[in-house]
Design goal:
Elements: H1 2-18, E1 29-35, E2 47-54, E3 59-67, H2 75-81, E4 85-92, H3 93-102, E5 107-112, H4 116-129, E6 136-138, H5 148-158, E7 167-168, H6 178-183, H7 191-199, H8 217-225, E8 227-228, E9 236-240, H9 255-276, H10 281-304, H11 318-331
Antiparallel strand pairs: 1-2, 1-5, 2-3, 3-4, 4-6, 5-9, 7-8
Helix pairs in contact: 4-5, 9-11
């Protein structure tokens, strides 16, 4: 472990020296890397990075705005409050790819058609962002993340001097709500899908338009694939892309099965209570505690956190409704 940390530190130092006043050669190319989803919840939506490859300068580096540290003081408290600080990382391309190769997650590459001046400006912007004083930023899943940062750097460079930035005809999730769009990346019926529905409030049901959709890596990938300069030339010089594969959840692991089982258990308990003429208040008490905790969590996230889409909605009544229907067997005589 100590050797690994020393190696990481050494690579970071060497990269910092490499990034100082580097001039790209004519052979340099800049690519957008889009990484397919992983099994962990935070990896379900994929990832985005920028690759700068310059054979003449013997350089192949990825810039990645998705670095965070679980060991940060009070990490989980800050995460709940929406005060998670991410930072820009830089690493050799082979190192960046190693994790995805080990987990067999495809990484798609789009080589950008940029002038030599534009390539240098993108490089300079990334090098400036990589300075220790500039690396960290307050992460926001919807408005400021690993996909939006590379996109806006590119657009800032390509629209400098009043030039018209490249436009895309890709419709994708245009007009869909945040809720629909985000839930697409959690298998239908999964508990993650159920949790999103519970925690998201009315703000999540607003339709998205234009660049609002580009906070998710797959959408950004397809959006840039159809982007064109003012003269009709494609922004993408070459690419190898494919839609993300979202694995379905077996029916017995879905939230639907879990909620159905809850109803059956409560209904069975109600029949038992009715026969013996006495109510099992301990079961109701457990559910009341769960409702109270859920309301406290949503209240806290709504009023005391930076999470943009959390709020009160009718879906919070799903479990209480199941509870009530099952207990009616005992209540109604």
């Amino acid at each position: 472990m100590c050797f690994k940390r020393l190696y990481i530190l050494l690579v970071a130092v060497l990269l910092s020296l490499t990034l100082c006043a580097q001039t790209l050669s004519e052979e340099a190319r800049i690519s957008l890397l889009t990484c397919s989803p992983g099994e962990e919840l935070y990896a379900r939506y994929g990832h985005t990075a920028l690759r700068i490859c310059d054979p003449q300068n013997d350089m192949d580096i990825t810039f990645n705005y998705g670095i965070f540290d679980f060991n940060t003081d009070h990490f989980y408290w800050k995460f709940v409050r929406g005060e998670t600080w991410y930072e820009l990382g830089a690493a050799p391309y082979w190192w960046f790819m190693r994790e995805y190769e080990e987990t067999q997650r495809p990484v798609y590459e789009q080589v950008l058609r940029l002038s030599q001046e534009d390539k240098q400006l993108v490089w300079d912007a990334l090098a400036e962002n990589y300075r220790p004083a500039n690396r960290k930023y307050l992460y926001n899943f919807v408005f400021d993340n690993c996909a939006t940062r590379p996109y806006f750097i590119l657009m800032e460079v390509l629209s400098r001097g009043g030039k018209k930035r490249p436009q895309s005809l890709y419709q994708g999730a245009e007009g869909k709500t945040y809720r629909e769009f985000i839930r697409h990346y959690t298998p239908k019926g999964s508990w993650a899908d159920f949790g999103i529905n519970l925690l998201f409030g009315p703000k999540a049901d607003r339709p998205m338009a234009g660049e609002q959709r580009l906070f998710l890596p797959e959408e950004l990938m397809f959006y840039l694939s159809e982007a064109r300069y003012a003269d009709g030339t494609s922004l993408i010089e070459s690419e190898h892309i494919a839609p993300f594969a979202i694995a379905p959840v077996p029916w017995y692991k879905t939230s639907y099965a879990g909620l159905a089982l809850l109803f059956v258990l409560l209904a069975t308990l109600s029949v038992y209570d009715r026969k013996r003429g006495k109510r099992s208040r301990w079961a109701d008490g457990i559910l009341y505690v769960i409702y109270a905790l859920l309301l406290l969590i949503v209240t806290f996230l709504t009023f005391f956190s930076c999470h943009p889409l959390v709020g009160f909605g009718w879906r919070l009544l799903i479990i209480p409704f199941i509870h009530l229907c099952a207990r009616l067997i005992y209540i109604v005589r």
